[in-house]
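User: I'm putting together a teaching handout on how sequence relates to shape, and I'd like one worked example. Could you take p-loop containing nucleoside triphosphate hydrolase protein from Clohesyomyces aquaticus, show the sequence you're using, and then write out its predicted structure as tokens right after it?

Assistant: Happy to. First the sequence, then the structure tokens directly below it.
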Amino acid sequence: MALRFFREYKVVVAGGERVGKSSFVYRFAPGYGIGMYDPRTIAIVDDEVALFDILDTAAQEEYSALRRQYMRDLEGMIIMYSITSRESFKETENFWKQLLCVKNKAYSPMLLVGNKSDRHGERQVSAQEGMALAKQFGCGFLEASAKEGCNVERAFHEIVREIRRFDSNVTTLSPLPETYQGSSSIFSKGILLSLLKVRKDER
Ligand SMILES: Nc1nc2c(ncn2[C@@H]2O[C@H](COP(=O)(O)OP(=O)(O)OP(=O)(O)O)[C@@H](O)[C@H]2O)c(=O)[nH]1
Ligand SMILES: [Mg+2]
């Protein structure tokens, strides 16, 4: 399997207060190197290398200019609620509406995630309700647990697939340096992270 592209995906995790956004991002992108936390990571999604540039938002940013700014810039949004909070489930609709309003589009790549699926006993929102809401949003749906690591990677891979489906303009993909093309077995994550570091230093 040839891996030919090195593409950055701007993904935002949004949702109500304390639903687990930071835990979710940290579980997928625990950062690397010394110094400030860097919420970026690399993964091979299907046969393409994906560099995730993830923004973990704060719930208090509601209606702020910052929120509009990140919605304008993002390529994919994970809209999160906690299955233990009906309130957070209701709030997801605001994020959905605002995203479409800011993008001025009928659809933008997104994924609905019901987090804290490990807390069965405190469930306030059923999986069926989650699925029905995702259908209304026209997007995919997953229940996940940042605590147990369940479906976290899958959620980030799914949002990349959705961005790819939405934006099939392959000219935005930049080829990998020739030396890094080849079979996945020799495609070491260490090499990719070094590449990422070089890119970061270039900024
Ligand atoms: N049981 C369980 N607890 C979780 C899970 N994800 C997050 N938590 C807990 O929920 C609390 C809030 O998690 P955060 O990751 O800070 O949530 P957040 O959405 O980033 O919170 P704000 O940024 O303050 O809005 C913490 O105590 C986490 O340990 C999960 O999947 N399962
Ligand atoms: Mg947080």
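A couple of points you could highlight for students: The domain at 5-174 is CATH 3.40.50.300 (Rossmann fold). The chain has one domain: 5-174.
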